[in-house]
Amino acid sequence: MTARAERGSIVAGRVALIAAVAFCGMAQAADVRASESSLIQLDPFAQATSGFKGCPASSPPLVTPEQMRIIAHERAERGTYCALEGRCEAGGAYHRDPEVNERVRAAIAGDKRFAGTSVAVTTTRRFVTLTGCVRSQAQRRALADFVKAQSGVDRVFDETRVGIVAAKP
After folding, report:
1. Residue 131: which H helix or E strand, with range?
2. How many CA atoms lie within 13 A of 2 on its CB side?
3. Distance from C-alpha of 114 to C-alpha of 51, rounded to nearest angstrom
4. Looking at residue 82, what is its pLDDT?
5. What is the pLDDT of residues 49-77, one digit of tens each?
6. What is the DSSP letter of 49?
7. Which residues fall within 8 angstroms of residue 18, CB to CB, at 6 or more apart?
8. What is the pLDDT of residue 14?
9. SS (H, E, C) 103-117
């Protein structure tokens, strides 16, 4: 077997492994939960702080079964590209999301600067989304900067609000 053929075989094996893990991971490792209305939670979600009285609790992002099928396809494609380019570890880009989510949640909960906030954390592909309420613009910036510095976080989407926010319908 030539070196080129051998390399192609390795890449094909990686692609197959990533696709299989991505498919299986959708149902198992992603903490999939269905509610009564058949909405599904795909990504890790946790409330980090609850110290801002009157701030409505954040809800985990939920998708319909049809949206889940579309998302599963997109995630499989990302895993294939990641494997072909040699950029990701076995299990794909979503593999570490539960531990990253918990690490970020614990870090926020343990930092006294954020004790008076009500912040929830969701992690998808090592991208962390923050939701909830903070007390000031300075606290909001400090929180986003703090989360960006956490191990395993590639990007932060700050959807927090200064003050109390009306609950989403």
Report:
1. strand 127-134
2. 3
3. 8
4. 75
5. 999 999 998 999 999 999 999 998 888 88
6. -
7. 76, 79, 80, 82, 83, 88, 90, 92
8. 55
9. HHHHHHHHCHHHCCC
Residues 6+ apart with CB under 8 A from 105: 46, 47, 48, 121
Q: Residue 147's closest CA among 44, 113, 166?
A: 113
pLDDT at 130: 98
What does the block give as tokens for 14? 């990686």
- Cα separation, 73 vs 156, whole angstroms: 24
Q: How far apart are CA 78 and CA 60, in angstroms?
A: 23
Q: Which helix (H) or strand (E) holds 122?
A: strand 118-124
Buried b (16+ CB within 10 A) or exposed e, 5-30: eeeeeeeeebbeebbebbeebbeebb
Q: In the chain, which residue ranges form alpha helices assigned H by DSSP?
A: 3-27, 65-85, 97-110, 137-148
Residues counted in the chain: 169
Phi, psi of 159 (to 5 degrees): -110, 20
Residue tagged 């509610």 (tokens): 35
Mode of pairing for the β-strands spanning 155-162 and 127-134: parallel
How many Å separate Cα 161 from the centre of its chain? 20
Residues in the chain predicted with pLDDT less than 50, given as ranges, are: 8, 17, 19-22, 24-36
